[in-house]
Amino acid sequence: MSTEPTFDEFLYQITQVLLPAWQLRSIDAHEPVQSASLPAPWQLLGCGNYAGVVCHPDFPDWIVKRYAPGRPGLAEEAEVYRKLGQHSAFSSCLHIGPDYLILRRIWGRTFWRCCIEGELITPRAVEDIDLAIDWARQRGLYPHDVHAKNVMQYAGRGFIVDISDFYKAEPCDHWQDFKRAYRWFYRPVLGRWPRPIPEWAMNAIRRSYRRLRRLLGRRK
Questions:
Q1: Which of 88, 160, 161, 216 has the smallest CB count inside 10 Å?
Q2: 1 lies in a domain?
Q3: Is residue 89 in a domain?
Q4: Domain stops at, among 63, 79, 104
Q5: pLDDT (tens digit, 0 to 9) for every residue of the chain, 220 residues total?
Q6: Do residues 186 and 197 make contact, with C-beta atoms less than 8 angstroms apart?
Q7: Could you list the residue range(s) of the whole structural domain that residue 115 is in?
């Protein structure tokens, strides 16, 4: 008779198999960290500027977020999850390790990936992100760095998957800028005729957006 994998078994796989082999390097604070030597059957879900995120096929409900050497923020992210509490649009932190967190997995595609694959980003998903941002603010947090790579959609509903900078008190315009692009371009054009956007074009848009923000002195 088969048994469900336990959390202790997951911890064993992390400490004895994953961490000794997995290498993360941060070359540029403004570019994703680089991942190497990920042991099978662990799978890379993605890399941000500070950390990499992986999953194990035998433990589908949990993920590991590991910070690259020298990158700050683990303790702050854990505190953000504590303040957020339980909300359907956010993950939750289940364990805090020396350089990693175990998080409840949120399924779906990032808005970024939706654009590349031609999947329609629904107005309801955008509204869900707005409501989740309000929830975070009501709990004394500062929704920061909310953009197309950090929000996801599943079954037409929206989720925020990276809250690592929600402790930063400085204002951030990323989500408002995304909503302007969504209203002015995405919904009138791609909302009516969804089509894939090549990843090279998405990266060109991302770099142009960053340059424009620097020229205009916009908030992070």
A1: 216
A2: no
A3: yes
A4: 104
A5: 557 889 999 999 999 999 999 999 988 877 889 999 999 999 999 898 899 999 999 999 999 999 999 898 999 999 999 999 999 999 999 999 999 999 999 999 999 999 999 999 999 999 999 999 999 999 999 999 999 999 999 999 999 999 999 999 988 889 999 999 999 989 998 888 888 988 998 888 888 877 776 776 655 5
A6: no
A7: 109-214
